[in-house]
Amino acid sequence: MDLNAKYEVAIQRMVNLLAEVTKKAKAVTCSPSKKLIEDLNVFQIFIEKEMRTTPMMQHAYEIQIFSSREDLKRAVKDVQCFNVLLEEERSKFDDFKRETIFDIAKEESILQSFKKIAEKNIAEQIKKSEEEMLATRKEHHARIELLQKEINSFVGRISLINVKNTAREEDLQKIHLETQNKSIELLAKYDRDIGAKCRLFEKLTLKNNILEKEQKELCIRLANQNVLYVQLKEEQEEAITKAFVEGLEKFKRNRAAKIIQRTWRSYRERLLLKKKKKKTKKK
């Protein structure tokens, strides 16, 4: 078997291996396995396109095929790791599912117990409310009967009050007519009085105007008389002061003369007394 035949057989085996790996990777449902499947599909298409290349190109691709094999081995290892992780996640999910089912059953039992208690309480409340409604209904009927009695008695009172009000209304109408007639008479008298007062007011207004004119004239005359009075008063005050000054001077002169005469008399009397004393001593 020559080199080309061996190369084609190797490529065919590689394609088959990639197809099997792709099928296994499709069974794993996670994001890294999907990426790996896409890479393997691209690699498979690339190998199929390059199966019938020239010997020179095939020799150049041997190095790439070797590296691809290494990558494929690493990819297979990654797939195995992903399978292990997937199994762990499945076991965890199963545990979580069992716990969830247990919790749901527990919650349902609690809900059933709550439901029974609620139904029992509701039945008791309904019974209690029915009893209260019956009691209130009886009380309501008793109140209605009592109110009906009060209404009947009130209707009788109203009829009596209506009779009294009718009689009082007739009396009030008579009083109203009398007061209306009196008010008409008072209005007529008021009109007459107002007319007389208006005429009197006009007369008084005329007299007031005349008096105001006379008052103005008297004010002018009074002002003139005040001026004359002030002048006369000043002249009188001057005459009085002049007479007072003259009298004062005359009084001063008379008083001085009297004082001189009095002192002279007292002096002469003292001299006479001295002479008499001397004469008595000589004897």
Provide an overview of this structure:
With 283 residues, this protein is mostly helical. 96% of the residues lie in helices and 0% in strands. It is built from 3 helices and no strands. Helix 1 runs antiparallel to helix 2. The longest helix is centred in the middle third of the chain and has 228 residues, at 55-282. The protein is elongated, with a radius of gyration of 77 Å. The mean pLDDT is 75.
Overview in brief:
The chain is an all-alpha fold and about 280 residues long. The chain has helices at about 5-25, 30-50, 55-280. It starts with a helix and ends with a helix.
SSE class: mainly alpha
Q: What is the 3D form?
A: elongated
Strand content: under 5%
Q: How many strands in all?
A: 0
What string gives the helices and strands in order? HHH
Distance between the termini: 226 Å
Mean pLDDT: 75
Major sheet description: none
Stretches where pLDDT is under 50 for at least 5 consecutive residues are: none
Q: What integer value in Å does the Rg equal? A: 77 Å
- Total helices: the number is 3
- Please bin the fraction of helical residues: over 70%
